[in-house]
Amino acid sequence: MNNYDFSAPDFSSLAARIHSSRREDVLRALKQRDGCRIADLTALLSPAAEPLLSSMAVAAGRLTRQRFGRVMQLYAPLYLSSYCANRCLYCGFSFDNQIPRRILSLSEAEKEALILADRGFGHILLVSGEAPARLGVDYLVGLAARLRRRFASVAIEVQPLSVAEYARLFAAGITGVVVYQETYDRQTYAAVHRGGVKTDYQRRLAVPAYAALAGMREVGIGALLGLSDWRAEGLALGLHLAWLRKLSWRTAYTISFPRLRPAPGSFSPLVAVSEKNLGQLLFSLRLFDPDVGLVLSTREQARFRDGMIGLAPTRYSAGSCTIPGGYGDAGAAGEQFSVSDERSIDEVASSIRAKGFDPVRKDWDAVFQAADEGASAGAGVDD
Amino acid sequence: MLSIAGRTFRSRLFMGTGKFSSSALMIAALRASGSEMVTVALRRVDLNDPADDIMGALNRRRFFFLPNTSGARDAAEAVRLAHLARAAGDTNWLKLEVTPDPRTLLPDPIETLKATEILVAEGFVVLPYINADPILALRLQDVGAAAVMPLGAPIGTNQGMLTRFQVGIIIEQARVPVVVDAGLGVPSHAAEAMEMGADAVLVNTAIAVATDPVKMAKAFAVAVEAGRMAYEAGPGEKQDQARASSPDFDLNFLRDE
Predict the structure, then answer these.
(1) Are B192 and B228 contacting, i.e. CB atoms less than 8 angstroms apart?
(2) Number of structural domains found in chain B
(3) Is the ipTM of this complex over 0.90?
């Protein structure tokens, strides 16, 4: 493939395609046993599929258990910095928000990570606002060198980077990249991203491909639910995923569906997305791509997350704190969003077990990669 | 009895340990299967941690521990994992899996051959997981693989012996044991592979995600035994009824001169 730019189709035409689906289309999609086509995904996301939601759940559950087993992987986010140069209306870290800002030193970040390791997490996701001048690649390389042997895997959700920068991070031991488009609807994108590099829709859209091409093992895409038509977001995610799979077949992909929660700056979701809607989205994408990892965070309530075990999601965060330094200091302030599922990892793990699934804390190993000590030695950053 | 690299096994059913809802259930299924050879993904366990849930549950005197390199994308990664297994897991046996496509988990023939050469030279007993490619099986045998493990169908698909014809050629040609690995969804699939003359089969998903994994493990054990017994009994060939009923061709025109 020569063209590395994914061009997202017009959002309103996606919505129109979805809304023209009929019950027969949904039934046809449900007959596919091993993944389905874009036309089927379109039908599964439609209002016509709503009366068939329980059939979708059963089919999605069968595929999920078949491909992933009776397991649920657990991870925790580790917030590094709340500084951000972007002005995004929905985000607690937005430049405009008056919150206490903080960036952890490498030692502080390491200390937070060790708390998570002690709690039994093998997989961590390093998260920060987008302020490259404060937290850049050197910082991440330095932190990776301290963490890589203590965790089964370390992934990042930070500002978009270049292929060369992702390659450098991969060599340093970071194996996954998460970067959400937030919304595939260009109009809404422009309306909610008011300032900073992130205002460039097309530039952001290219980033998951950069991470995949740099050799990252796993690349996560996602859309924030509550900004625009969730059905069309689902179809755009499916198209993006299918395009990425062709671009880089060695990469494992995940999709996340963060539903907007109350945050400082008091942004109310622009559209309502119910748990039922979110369920339909999860089932649809599972039926579309049996092997994609589906992630549900602690933004969702315990009841909902417990109910979804075994039906479509493959990975849950647990015991999350969205404030830099918040694991060690319970009094820390300035969160990105407030969590709904406040249970500890052990409580989440026992709910998973109670559902007849195995909570998996380690499903990778640092040994997969050659230690590139040169990469970390060169990182002249510290405390 | 089945013999691989000088080690004998009474059971011809090998089992995987992934996808179970708990280690306790995994162990119960292993016991029910009668299996003696158990493969464990190195990515999933911490061999240095005595409290590891899977390794802690696995009695290595009863079950022969066969670490696998599931997740490795190339030969270099597989070799690194093999070194980890030897250092921390105290074994030089290895089920070699090089699966660069995380979606289908189909094995990379080129990297698998490369890794086998390296690991055999380093003294490992290598059992490579391969697509059902007869020439690749021979090439692996030539560089010292202790067995070959062709797939019946892609991992986790439960599709059965989709590769029947190719596996038949491998069984016919191979000097090393042939273990049909992956894709066997129900006991009759395992019986089919054994009737064909496979030396053993490896099953994981079909047992782990069954409603009753323990019962399913028993069912596979019985099927593997039945299939092997049938193979040893020498099944009659399928008869072509049309041929039997057609009149003999008249050869009276042939003279004895």
Answers:
(1) no
(2) 1
(3) no
